[in-house]
């Protein structure tokens, strides 16, 4: 796998250093800290990274690699029980739900789907077929998440090799929240994205061309401003925001300024003079306005929009399947060197958001059964930020 930031030689040297430290002694092991470079190295070649931290079995490599999946607020709400060398159970983590912005767990289940699809692609890349059974013991209520699995996942040696090329784009995939530049997304590019994604469950609808895009921006911007001005909803971002590097790489989850497309001197100034994670600071008018202005500049630089539309029962199974297609799309975009950023404030299931949802749905002329599950902007950008993932021991049951 190619990655612009690391030569393979440097990577091997680095992971050798890492594994050497791990094996020397538990005391020395503590000196090794997960940081920015490790986060990048992990994404560059997750299988090699897994080996070098002692995960040799295919099932372990698959479980670790799938944590790179996009997930709501980088909460990583997954719990895994390894059953055997060829199977695991995936559970939702009820301590990592976001009720204020996701009251019916729609995005929570999308996030289970992204994990499962990436696990499937990782298994394929390692030479295994996978069988996924959704909710093998029934759909859990909020109180049953720890006992009723979201899915069973089983691998068996591949019968016919049809390696899905999407997996090769994993090192380049990220949620890119920077300002985009360059040309508008073309009709041909949207066709290529559709073909590469090859969705199993949802329909992809593209909004292309300056005028069309402009006509949807008010929904995105106004719904973001609405959410930012609601205490409970704005509080979710505060709780999951990590300001200093030490916080980002010790907690290894959540959101950050760098992940929001702000880096270098701008990030330094923002952290030093503006960004305030205290309750009063975060909810102050100045802080909310700064966040809305940043979002506006992101949204206005969109070079295309994409919507993920389902047409079934709009239930937990459909949300998981949506997440699976969303995973495929995000890899397809990475493969075409396109930047992609999900923006869902107008699609959420609390009353203030529902108003925006209904307006977009009617503007699109969708049928009653059709449901916009997710939407995002597309464009071009060289910005990169590899958001961290937690240690596997935090996820394993
Ligand atoms: C279901 C779902 C909903 C998301 N919604 C948003 C969103 O509204 N705004 C946003 O900036 N990112 C959104 N994201 C992106 C996540 O925050 C992102 O995947 C996570 O922080 C990890 O970063 P990475 O994808 O770069 O690895 C969403 C991701 C998923 C899977």
Question: Helices and strands: which structural class?
Answer: alpha+beta
Number of H/I helices: 15
Ligands (ions, cofactors included): flavin mononucleotide
Largest beta sheet: strand ordering: 1-2-4-3
User: What is CATH's topology name of the domain at 187-379?
Assistant: NADH Oxidase
Quaternary assembly:
single chain
Q: Could you give the distance between the termini?
A: 31 Å
| Tally of DSSP β-strands | 8
Which stretches are low in confidence, meaning pLDDT under 50 for 5 or more residues running?
1-32
Q: What's the CATH architecture of the domain at 187-379?
A: 3-Layer(aba) Sandwich
Mean pLDDT: 91
Rg: 21 Å
Our estimate of the beta-strand percent is: 5-15%
Largest sheet: 4 strands, antiparallel
Give the ordered list of helices and strands.
Answer: HHHHHEEHEEHEHHHHHHEHEHE
The helix fraction, in percent, is 40-55%
> How would you describe the shape?
globular
**Highest CATH level, the class of the domain at 187-379:** Alpha Beta
Task: Walk me through the structure.
- The protein is α+β, with helices and mostly antiparallel strands.
- Among the domains are: 8-56, no CATH class; 187-379, NADH Oxidase, CATH 3.40.109.
- The chain contains 15 helices and eight strands.
- It has helices spanning 8-24, 26-31, 36-44, 46-52, 58-66, 106-125, 187-197, 210-228, 231-240, 245-251, 264-274, 279-282, 285-300, 316-335, 351-364; strands at 78-84, 87-92, 128-134, 151-157, 203-207, 304-310, 339-342, 371-379.
- The protein has a four-stranded antiparallel β-sheet with strand order 1-2-4-3, covered by helices on one side.
- A hairpin with a 2-residue loop joins strand 1 and strand 2 (87-92).
- Helix 3 crosses helix 4 and helix 8 packs antiparallel against helix 15 (351-364).
- The longest helix is centred in the N-terminal third of the chain and has 20 residues, at 106-125.
- The chain is globular, with a radius of gyration of 21 Å.
- The model is unreliable at 1-32 (pLDDT under 50).
- Bound molecules: flavin mononucleotide (FMN).
- Flavin mononucleotide (FMN) binds next to helix 6 and strand 7.
- GO terms for molecular function: oxidoreductase activity.
- InterPro entries: Nitroreductase-like.
- This is Nitroreductase domain-containing protein.
């Amino acid at each position: 796998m190619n990655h612009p930031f690391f030569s393979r030689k440097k990577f091997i040297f680095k992971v050798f250093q890492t594994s050497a430290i791990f094996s020397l002694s538990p005391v020395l092991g503590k000196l090794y800290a997960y940081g920015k470079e490790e986060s990048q190295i992990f994404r560059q070649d997750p299988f090699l990274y897994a080996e070098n931290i002692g995960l040799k079995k295919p099932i372990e490599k698959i479980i670790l690699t799938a944590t790179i999946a996009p997930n709501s607020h980088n909460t990583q709400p997954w719990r895994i029980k390894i059953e055997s060398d060829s199977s695991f159970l995936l559970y939702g983590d009820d301590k990592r739900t976001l009720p204020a912005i996701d009251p019916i767990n729609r995005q929570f289940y999308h996030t289970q789907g992204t994990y499962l699809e990436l696990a499937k692609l990782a298994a394929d890349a390692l030479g295994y077929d996978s069988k996924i059974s959704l909710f093998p013991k029934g759909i859990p209520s909020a109180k049953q998440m720890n006992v009723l699995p979201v899915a069973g996942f089983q691998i068996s040696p591949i019968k016919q090799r049809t390696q899905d090329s999407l997996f090769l784009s994993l090192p380049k995939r990220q949620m890119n929240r920077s300002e985009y530049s360059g040309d508008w997304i073309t009709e041909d590019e949207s066709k290529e994205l559709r073909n590469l994604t090859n969705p199993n469950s949802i329909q992809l609808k593209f909004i292309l061309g300056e005028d069309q895009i402009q006509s949807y921006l008010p929904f995105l911007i106004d719904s973001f401003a609405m959410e930012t001005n609601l205490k409970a909803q704005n509080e979710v971002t505060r709780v999951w925001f990590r300001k200093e590097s030490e916080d980002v790489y010790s907690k290894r989850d959540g959101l950050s300024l760098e992940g929001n497309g702000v880096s270098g001197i701008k990030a330094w100034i923002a952290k030093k003079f503006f960004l305030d994670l205290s309750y009063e600071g975060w909810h102050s008018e100045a802080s909310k306005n700064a966040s809305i202005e940043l979002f506006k500049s992101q949204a206005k630089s969109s070079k295309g929009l994409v919507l993920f539309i389902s047409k079934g029962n709009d239930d937990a199974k459909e949300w998981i399947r949506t997440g699976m297609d969303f995973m495929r799309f995000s890899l397809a975009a990475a493969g075409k060197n396109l930047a992609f950023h999900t923006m869902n404030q107008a699609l959420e299931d609390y009353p203030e958001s529902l108003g925006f949802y209904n307006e977009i749905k009617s503007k699109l002329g969708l049928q009653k059964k059709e449901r916009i599950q997710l939407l995002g902007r597309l464009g071009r950008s060289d910005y990169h930020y590899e958001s961290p993932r937690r240690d596997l021991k935090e996820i394993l049951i």
